[in-house]
Amino acid sequence: MASDFMVFLDAGHGGLDPDGQYTTAPSKMFRHRNGTFHDGPLFYEGVWNRTLTNRVANRLQHLQIPYRIVSHEFLDISLNYRVEVANWYYRNHRKGIYISNHANASSTHTARGFEVYTSPGRTQADVLAEMHWNNVRDLLENRIDYRSSLSDGDHDREARFFVLVRTLMPAMLVEHLFFDNAEDARLLMDPEIVERFAEAQVRSIVAWMNT
After folding, report:
1. Which of 1, 53, 84, 181 could bridge to 11 as Cys pair (CB 3.0-4.6 Å)?
2. DSSP for 109-122, written as a single string
3. CATH homologous superfamily, domain 5-210
């Protein structure tokens, strides 16, 4: 199936190394006052990003959809390396799409909601992002909050993030709620919520392939 297509998956930032050390910036974790997360009160964004990305990868493998995870199991390898790996395969082997998985944070720790980002302007990534937005809404409905910009007629927000402007293929960056907000963080630790986010992503990939 899809012998000329590949999904490039990027789990944002770094994770926990074999010694239990977090390999990415301190801003990518948050200590909550209440609740149990990855390490008691600590929520590690990079760990969550890998949990979701691996779940998506397992589903793609089951469906025999080619994929490559361009991030490391736990190291916070450079964005340039991740993008160049995807671009090399895109040029020399298979066309595809790039999906970067994240959870968000804010300076006030009060923001909530799901967002999808694409590069500025109208591109094919906007089509992918809108598919994904609709799939998330179908599967999660009112269980989460949503943050969007309808200035250009669709729900994605636009930004010049490295993985969006330096990739050769359609790329979207997904912010799955705010890990520094207690309510959102508890949702992110809910196995069913993670399952629905993963299912939505796979449905978006399949819908893209069918177009």
Report:
1. 53
2. S----BEEEE-SSS
3. Zn-dependent exopeptidases (3.40.630.40)
pTM of the predicted protein model: 0.96
Alpha carbon distances (Å) from 204 to 65, 195, 199: 13, 14, 9
> pLDDT by residue (tens digit) across 18-77?
999 999 999 999 999 999 999 899 999 999 999 999 999 999 999 999 999 999 999 999
Summarize the chain as % helix, strand, coil (round to 5).
40, 20, 35
- Residue 96: helix, strand or coil by DSSP? strand
Give me the residue spans of the domains in the chain: 5-210
Q: How far is CA 52 from the centre of its chain?
A: 8
pLDDT by residue (tens digit) across 198-211?
Answer: 999 999 999 999 98
